[in-house]
Amino acid sequence: HGTSKINNKGHLEIGGVDATALVSEYGTPLYVFDEALVRQRCREFVSAFQASGLKYQVAYASKAFMVMAMCRIVEEEGMSLDVVSDGELYTALQAGFPAERIHFHGNNKTPEEIEMAIDARIGCFVVDNFDELQLLNAIAGEKRQKVNILLRITPGVEAHTHEYISTGQTDSKFGFDLGNGSAFRAIKEASEQAHLQLLGVHSHIGSQIFEVEGFRMAAEKVAAFAVEVRKELSVIFPVINLGGGFGIRYMEGDTPLPVAVYVKAITDAIKENFGANDYPLPEIWVEPGRSIVGDAGTTLYTIGTTKDIPGVRKYIAVNGGMTDNPRPALYESEYEAMLANRATEQPEEVVSIAGKCCESGDMLIWDIQLPKVHVGDVLAVSCTGAYNYAMASNYNRIRRPAVVFVKDGQSDLVVKRETYNDIVGNDVIPERMKQVS
Ligand code: LLP
Question: What is the annotated quaternary arrangement, including any partners (predicted)?
Answer without folding.
Answer: Homodimer.
